[in-house]
Design a protein that fits this description.
The protein has 322 residues and is of the alpha+beta class. The protein has 2 domains: 160 residues, no CATH class; 132 residues, no CATH class. It contains 5 helices and 18 strands. About 2% of the residues have low confidence.
């Protein structure tokens, strides 16, 4: 996101290239053709005006004249000249209802929680917003910042700027849950997976706890968590039932099954499939540990996966001899 007072938004990104590291300028070197750039117009009615698309790679110019806008820079008698970065843009697309800084105030806690989560995972994130004076939200005091895609699910009125990869029938990659907001709908037919082992373990723990509560509520006894070849064994109305449990922080319509899970579901008559999705997970920035709550419970009793509902994602291939 570009943060600027300039009036010619969408023409290009330009900033000085200094011998000392200035991340708010140096981020221009990372912009690639096809990237979307949002434009924050500073001033009394600060707002995200619209977006542009980069139509070329960053280049350097030998002489770039600029006037620093910081407190000390504004006291300089004349503009400075140095090398500069330039990235051509394809013209601004204005938002019909540009989100203003005032519109972001009710979202401050969500914005700051996202910033904290990302910082706990990555350290510096060049987040676009910060809390000012305890009760105000402001854009960073930098020219260019990163705009995490999770913000599209928080900030209203900017969805037209989003780039979403097309999902084809041949796309078998898991959707990473690590940076998705809880309760977001996963793409149809796509499986999801948390890459962070701590997050993955927390989601699995929450889904098992919800499944255990379900069985306790219907009078289940002798519940045991096995893990393999199925997750839970429990006795309900005198009959031992086996349960496969799947969990996600997203809302899902597809789960990944191992060949053993498929075989067991088809061969054993008393198998339940329990899916707990939409789990809320929050990371403690101090410890890196996750706490979870909530989740939507769905139960398929006497479950047996049909061949027509299975899609092969991977094959074990024995190499030919010779």
């Amino acid at each position: 996101m570009e943060i600027t007072h300039r009036d010619d938004l969408g023409t290009d990104l330009n900033a000085p290239k200094l011998p000392t590291e200035e991340w708010g300028y140096d981020l221009l070197s990372q912009v690639q053709t096809g990237d979307r750039v949002l434009h924050w117009k500073s001033g009394p009615n600060a707002r995200i005006v619209g977006w542009s698309e980069a139509i070329g790679q960053p280049t350097t110019v030998p002489k770039y004249t600029w006037q620093p806008r910081g407190t000390s820079g504004r006291t300089l008698p004349a503009p400075r000249t140095s090398e500069g970065w330039v990235v051509p843009l394809g013209g601004v697309h204005n938002f019909p209802s540009p989100p203003t800084s005032q519109m972001l105030l009710p979202l401050m806690d969500q914005l700051m929680a996202l910033r904290d989560d990302l910082q706990s995972l990555h350290g510096s994130t060049y987040f676009p917003f910060y809390r000012y004076g305890g009760d105000q939200i402001r854009a960073q005091q930098a020219y260019l910042v990163k705009f995490p895609f999770q913000l599209f699910d928080i900030v209203p009125g900017i969805s037209s700027a989003r780039i979403d990869a097309l999902v084809t029938e041949f796309d078998d990659t898991d959707v990473s849950e690590d940076y998705q907001p809880s309760g977001k709908q996963a793409p149809p037919g796509r499986t999801t997976r948390a890459q962070d082992p701590k997050l993955r373990a927390a989601i699995e723990r929450r889904s098992l706890d919800v499944a255990s509560e379900y069985y306790a509520g219907i009078g289940g006894i002798n519940l045991r968590e096995l893990g393999k070849p199925y997750d839970i064994a429990v006795t309900v109305e005198g009959v031992e039932r086996h349960c496969e449990v799947k969990g996600s922080r997203m809302l899902i319509d597809t789960v990944e099954l191992t060949i053993n899970e498929v075989t067991h579901g088809q061969d054993c008559g008393q198998v339940d499939l329990i899916v707990v999705d939409g789990i809320e997970a929050r990371c403690d920035p101090q410890t890196g540990e996750y706490t979870t709550k909530g989740g939507r419970l769905r139960v398929w009793r006497d479950w047996s996966p049909e061949e027509d509902d299975l899609s092969a994602k991977r094959f074990a291939y024995i190499l030919p001899a010779g």
